[in-house]
Amino acid sequence: xxxxxxxxxxLNSRKPPRTDWGPFNAMSEEERHRAALSDxxxxxxxxxxxxxxxxxxxxxxxxxxxxxxxxxxAARFHLPLGTVRDWEQGAHRPDKAAQVLLTVIAKDPDAVxxxxxxxxxxxxxxxxxxxxxxxxxxxxx
Length: 141
What we know:
Blueprint: H1 22-26, H2 29-38, H3 48-52, H4 59-65, H5 70-76, H6 81-89, H7 96-107, H8 109-116
Helix pairs in contact: 5-6, 7-8
């Protein structure tokens, strides 16, 4: 494998490199389509692929749609505030279970809130529960 033509550099997310869109803008729609089809690394999506894609709502957009602060959103849906902040700031992405929860919240937030009413609130992160051995278990604490 020839690595002679590879340039290595670190990208700074706060200052992304500028893209020269001139050549792209000069292409016709047909030329753009042909160029996309000729790219073996990233072929264009078929018409069926976007229809099958599941879209997960962004946390910030969902929260703003519900007119809630981060604190209110976290409390209403029993989520750790730090997790909601991390999702919104892009530090972490919701895992699959969280994506499902966010999708359900987007569809019917009142139903989710009602379902969680009798559910105990999550404990703070700094609290650690230590199991206590039952009497007669033969184990010393």
